[in-house]
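Entry for DGJ complex. Fields follow.
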Amino acid sequence: MIVESTPSSWILETHNTAYALGFNASGALLHRYWGRKLPQHSDYPEAANYPNWASFDGPQNLWQEEFPVYGGMSYVEPCLKTTFADGTRDTVLEFVKSETQGDELQITLKDSHYPLEVILHYRVFFEHDLIVRFVTLKNLGSEKISLERIFSAQWHFPLHDTYQLTHLSGRWNDEYQIRREPLGHGTKVLESRRLTSSHHHNPWFALERGDATETHGAVWFGALAWSGNWKLTAEVTNFYATRVSMGLNDWDFALELHAGETFVSPEALGGFSLEGYGGASRLLHDHIRQNVIPHGPVTHKVLYNSWEATFFDVTEAGQGKLAELAAEMGIELFVVDDGWFQGRHSDQAALGDWWPDAGKFPNGLQPLIDKVNALGMDFGLWIEPEMVNPDSDLYRAHPDWAIHFPTRARTTGRNQLILNLAKLEVQHYLIEMLDKLLAQHPISFIKWDMNRNVSEPGWAEHPQGKEIWVRYVEGLYHVWDTLRLRHPNIFWQSCSGGGGRADLGILTKADQIWASDNTEPAARLSIQEGFSLAYPALIMEAWVTDMGTAPLEFRLHVSMLGALGIGADLTHWNEAERALAAHWIAYYKTIRHIVQLGDQYRLRSDRDLRGLHGQVGNYSSWMYLSKDKTEGVLFDFRTHLSDPVVLPAIKLCGLEPESLYQLEGHGTRSGLAWMEIGVHLHPLTETHSNFGDRSSSVLKIKKV
Ligand code: DGJ
């Protein structure tokens, strides 16, 4: 809900929060408040109007400007930096008008001299306590305007407090590791310079005063809906103001706005919760399920993926055998990964030639698809459309389509180059080629992979080659959106060598993310925990594979924390193993609506963050509860503990305090009792022999 408290100030109210902004007496648009909703509109502070503090600091350095620009005596991180046609590199924005359309507030500003219009958009998601911000830039004149930085938003936090920044960082095979660190004076930068949102930092953050836990405390959080180079700056000024800005990365960046042109920035999302990190995550989970992913909150099928079973050794007979075994175990979707297309016998060749390999599939894909369908499963396929191997028909025909600088050698990664999706002819080719593949076959699921980061980012024939960073991502979105519109029933998965492209931008195309190539279950627990801070279990594809030495049941339970899949070589599993997997697949189907669509509670971290949960790490617990709070499921995992050990009680969350709940095998008590006292899932002094390392349990919770 948007409340206009005066003609030049607004309060954006959500279910539990408020965000206030307004112009001050000097005509600057300032942040006024962001946090818990207050009883009276008059409770929110006015926009401050501090004067110059010294000749070394213009007033902008003290103000909390909603959208600071590079200009005047402002030295804080700006959201916009421009160069006008006459060389002026100073922007002065003035208020033109404001408009409210439903849940969106638009504030139009214009440069005082130059024909640059800036529209700030604020979209309110009332139920989810979220605000989405973005900016539209318009060149109203006849001469070019160069943009050197465009951030979507700057978020401000209560002045004079100190904060902890939480972010997700890692690398290939080790994504989404949770880092929590105090913010000190100066600027901390998180970013991607890799063309994708990347394994290295995820475009998500949380900020709190150091007193928030999983269940309690004020947490501000945000994310950027962009799948390319992005940047986050977290700045603490010398006036004790903390602000976080998010937007396109200005590293190697330029965009030109020609006469009459418009540019719309990616969306930046911000939210606030008083229920700690868990509350913040659940708001994001609900929002992503309901407002972001294409198919919304519907349960996802149990899939089988052939990659770790057959790698490039894909044949019609081999996949058919795997499909038979998968169907017997209750799998619902059979996905053929890499290795199915013309000439693909290793990672040396063939990317770009997207038709079935004549030797492996003499009669095309249809006989295998028919078999999979006859076994009662849907059929899915892996593709990597953005890539080309130099050893491919596509590259031999169009070497100029790869991203390159003409005078430089083309650095390959996994023997492949990247097609320049900024080019219209490349977009057109991919749309037509993939459309043909999808139109010819009943394909229900596509895994869209992307297996390297960029090098030599040239776009020789374009006058402003640095635009490649933005235009590539726009091209990717265009290709994907066009295919989605033509094939609306397909579920897409975003993969980039595991979790290299998980962000709110790609999630408007893909219903699922392949979170990591690391499928070793203990490693996976920590990857999945980090992932869960930002993204819901519904979209987290999690396979059971043969990686590592953990017992099969433990591996199954770890994967059941998300959208369960199997990726092992089933021909090597014995009957007992297949029966055990079939048992847990059947069980998962009875709880998946809770796991995928319910509320998730991280009861204990494997990493025992900050020791808040007691002394024991390597013992984790997760709970999922249906939205109506009538049924839930409790998981616990012991990864590695030295014996003897005293395992702590697990305290449940989210239950109705007065209602009675039965916890499978542990009796019936009030919701409050389960939450206050908890449950010792294993006798206190159990030793390695009867509840050992890498053991786990899954228990149902039922309101009675
Ligand atoms: C990387 C992905 O993350 C894997 O799951 C698999 O699809 C391979 N690529 C195939 O080349």
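NOTE: The chain is about 20% helix and 30% strand.
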